[in-house]
Amino acid sequence: MKNLSEIAIKAFKEGSDNYGETPTGEVRPLRKTVYREGTIFFDTEFVGWDHYSCTVLLVQPDGHLCGSGIGFYVKDGQMQVCSGHIVFTLPVTDELQAELDSAELSN
Fold this sequence. Notes:
Elements: H1 4-15, E1 22-27, E2 31-33, E3 50-59, E4 65-75, E5 78-82, E6 86-91, H2 94-101, E7 104-106
C-alpha cells in the first residue's frame, strides 16, 4: 500500500494542469484544516469531511522550485484525493489513518 506522500505525487501527475513540472519526490508535512463558520471554505461540498493537505515539491523546466497543493477529504472510511479536481477515491486503511492522525493542525 502506498503512503500519503506517494499518493500525493500520483495525484499531481494525474490531476493537475501540468506545465512541465516534475515532482522532486519530496512532500511537505501533512496538515489538517479545521473549517470555521464564516470562512470562505466553510460552505463547500466537503463540510462534514475531514480535510488534510500537503504540498508536492516540483522542479519547473527552467530549474526553479515550486509546489502544488494536494487535498485529502476523508469521511466514512473513504478518502477523496484532489489535485485541481477529485482525481480518485481510496479506502482509508489503518496505515493511512495513522498518517492522517499524525497531521499538524492548520486553520
